[in-house]
Design a protein that fits this description.
The complex is a heterodimer of chains A (309) and B (373). With 309 residues, chain A is α/β, with parallel strands linked by helices. Chain A folds into two domains: 215 residues, Rossmann fold (3-Layer(aba) Sandwich); 69 residues, Alpha-Beta Plaits (2-Layer Sandwich). Helices cover 37% and strands 27% of the residues of chain A. Chain A has a six-stranded mixed beta sheet, sandwiched between helices. In chain A, strands 11-12-10-13 form a four-stranded antiparallel beta sheet, with helices on one face. In chain A, strands 2-1-4 form a three-stranded antiparallel beta sheet, covered by helices on one side. In chain A, helix 5 packs parallel to helix 6 and helix 9 packs across helix 10. Chain B is mostly helical and 373 residues long. Helices cover 66% and strands 4% of the residues of chain B. In chain B, helix 6 runs parallel beside helix 10, helix 6 crosses helix 13 and helix 10 runs antiparallel to helix 13. In chain B, 32% of the residues are buried. The chains are: A alpha/beta (309), B mainly alpha (373).
């Protein structure tokens, strides 16, 4: 039984259709990531699930509960870190947590939350004077003050430096270890690949594809890019290019000086043949690389759009 | 759910937020104090007893009439003499232009031209000192005329007494102090709802709506904090008025409470209305400033509203600050009011303003919520 079921969600603002029939299910304990270009409808989708925006059509079931009948009970069970990360700037970290704790019938101990978001040392600092990363961690802390089963993180790492991003990843992995369900949106492919159990790519208000990161990558065309450079210069590279042209699986090649690039649907066989040839001729190969496919390639393949951070 | 705990936390959070904001201190406490002090120093200081008018005399020609006049002028205690002896017309002109004297009196030129001339700087033509000098001179002329007509003892006398409904006379200091308290409280409401605009702009409203918080409880807590700030304002301004400027208090607690409560609510409702259609801080401040300036000068805060031109009187009669200031004066210095129909009529006007502003504001907020993304 999935903990969250979203069926045929639709929302239009005037003539602009922001969300156009989005459906998915999230299992308990999963990290479920929604990625998509700006304006794809990610935030609107989240806001409908969070009960902030009423959908024009479609249904949302949170562990058997619906917004129409059980608004408060859903609110008790979900935690939200919104993109704007708004809080009381003139209150301290601890005062913010304690205040939000009183909104819920059951709240996690403030000390635990402070430890989880690693802000114990800064608990008496006013929010105004926190750094971007600290502020974002507090926003997540406010989202988990009610010990929710499902936590929504809307672009938690946008605009943070690499170290601060890693700190947030640790929190997400910590939540996963506790068996919580996390629904995440992000701008960073690396993050989606690293954290997610499943990834949902959204574009123009529709679900483009949805699967585990490795399955999505595996679904891509098997044409891989192989790059080599030769110590014996241009001549060797040119000879290798001619030789490899007829090798099995090679789709196309391109050469620039001593650097050769080739695209093959069977990279292992191609390389085997190529190395046979270079050994025979005595050419020395300096560097070899097979570019790994990433979610970024998946994104480009499915949406036809360049990914921009 | 522990409502009382939630309310206590909301109250203390709102209290901290309010008193940690330097702007709140400046605009709600220091600014009214500065304004009141300035007005009291400029206008409140002069009682009738230490009124002095600096004058000089020009005597064009020696003559019995002129000498007689001069002798009687010297008897008048409020005149301070720039020069004991009469001066030349040129010297007198200089003094007037430089404003070294409040006025110069030209004594009669000869026995036949029995006219007394008063020359003042044009800038001061309408001011109170000129009026007083003119009044004194007119009396002297009158008496001289009576004497010339052979009447030694006038048949009629004029006596002036001032009467106030309070137990003590309401002087300008009392009037200004209570006006400033009303203005400070009104501005607290008009400007105070800027929090709402900021909370909405920063997304805090939205964030709170994600939690199961009761918005009514939040509103109640923040209103209670505003009342507390209001009490603080009343105490500060009264203390400064009484101890520094000798204002008198004659408090009637029920009157004061009713006026304070209804007035504060009404002005907070007006602020709430402004916040409902102001998308930015600047827009909100603009509306609050217009409202506050308009009322400040028309509603009898610094000067009695009765001195306004006739066509402005109906405007004054509908503005809420007029009734708020009157109500607070009733409660703070007249020591009565709750039993008078006028007081309750004023309270009714305030309540009407508050209710209408709140209803429109709430409607706009509801409509805005549907449109908000």
């Amino acid at each position: 039984m999935p903990i969250l079921q979203v069926q045929g969600l639709r929302k239009a603002y005037g003539p602009v259709v922001a969300v156009d029939g989005i459906s998915f299910e999230v299992e308990a304990g999963e990290v479920f990531t929604i990625i998509g270009p700006n304006g794809a409808g990610k935030t609107t989708t989240l806001e409908m699930i969070e009960g902030l925006v009423p959908p024009d059509a479609g249904s949302i079931v949170v562990d058997g509960l619906t917004w129409a009948r059980d608004a408060d009970r859903i609110k008790y069970r979900i935690g939200i870190q919104p993109q704007s990360s708004a809080m009381y700037d003139l209150l301290t970290v601890e005062e913010n947590l304690e205040l939000f704790a009183t909104f819920y019938p059951r709240a996690r101990d403030t000390k635990d939350v402070l430890a989880m978001i690693n802000l114990t040392d800064h608990r008496n600092k006013r929010v105004k004077s926190l750094s971007g990363g600290q502020r974002q961690r507090l926003a997540i802390g406010l989202g988990m003050i009610n010990d929710p089963d499902i936590i929504f993180l809307d672009e938690p790492t946008t605009g943070l430096d690499p170290q601060a991003r890693r700190n947030i990843w640790d929190i997400v992995l910590g939540l996963k270890a506790m068996g919580k369900t996390t629904i995440l949106t992000t701008h960073y492919m690396e993050e989606a690949e690293k954290l997610s159990d499943r990834v949902c790519i959204v574009d123009q208000g529709k679900v483009v594809t949805l699967d585990t990161p490795s399955a999505l990558i595996g679904r891509l065309t098997r044409e891989r890019e192989v790059r080599l450079s030769f110590l014996d210069g241009e001549e060797a590279a040119a000879a290798a290019e001619t030789a490899v042209h007829d090798a099995s699986g090679v789709v196309r090649t391109s050469r620039e000086g001593a650097h050769l690039a080739l695209w093959s649907v069977r990279p292992e066989e191609t390389l085997y043949d190529l190395f046979g040839f270079t050994k025979e001729r005595g050419y020395r190969v300096d560097q070899v690389s097979i570019r790994e496919l990433s979610l970024e390639d998946v994104f480009i393949a499915f949406t036809g759009k360049e990914w921009r951070d | 759910m522990n409502w009382s705990k939630q309310f206590r936390k909301l109250f203390s959070a709102n209290l901290k937020v309010m008193f940690r904001e330097k702007q709140v201190w400046f605009w709600n406490i220091f600014f009214p104090i500065i304004l009141m002090t300035i007005f009291m120093v400029i206008f409140g200081g002069s009682d009738g007893s230490d009124f002095k008018a600096k004058i000089a005399v020009v005597k064009p020609a020696a003559g019995q009439a002129a000498d007689g006049m001069l002798a009687s002028l010297k008897q008048i205690p409020v005149f301070e003499w720039k020069s004991e002896e009469p001066v030349t017309a040129e010297q007198a002109d200089d003094w007037i232009k430089e404003k070294d004297v409040d006025g110069v009196i030209y004594l009669p030129e000869d026995e036949h031209a029995q006219s007394l001339k008063l020359v003042v700087n044009t800038e001061n033509e309408q001011n109170a000192t000129t009026q007083v000098i003119r009044g004194i001179l007119e009396q002297i002329v009158q008496q001289s005329n009576l004497a010339a007509a052979g009447i030694q003892t006038p048949t009629y006398h004029l006596e002036t007494l001032s009467v106030s409904s309070g137990s003590e006379d309401l002087n300008y200091t009392d009037f200004l102090m209570t006006g400033m308290i009303a203005l400070a409280l009104a501005q607290g409401g008009l400007f105070g709802m800027v929090d709402l605009v900021e909370m909405r702009r920063k997304g805090l409203m939205k964030r709170l709506r994600m939690t199961p918080i009761r918005m009514g409880l939040l509103g109640l807590a923040s209103m209670l904090v505003r009342f507390l700030l209001g009490v603080f304002q009343v105490v500060c301004l009264s203390a400064i008025g009484v101890f520094l400027f000798g204002a008198h208090l004659h408090i009637d607690v029920p009157t004061l409470l009713v006026a304070f409560f209804i007035g504060s609510l009404a002005f907070n409702a007006l602020g709430y209305l402004f916040s409902s259609f102001s998308k930015t801080l600047e827009a909100y401040m603009g509306f609050a400033n217009i409202a506050s300036f308009l009322m400040m000068f028309i509603s009898g805060i610094f000067f009695p509203a009765s001195s306004l031109p006739g066509w402005l009187q109906p405007v004054k009669d509908v503005l809420p600050l007029t009734y708020f200031a009157e109500g607070l004066r009733d409660g703070l210095v007249y020591g009565s009011g709750i039993e008078s129909t006028e007081f309750w009529l004023g309270a009714g006007v305030l309540a009407l303003w508050g209710a209408v502003a709140y209803l429109i504001g709430a409607t706009l907020y509801r409509r805005g919520k549907v449109e908000a993304r």
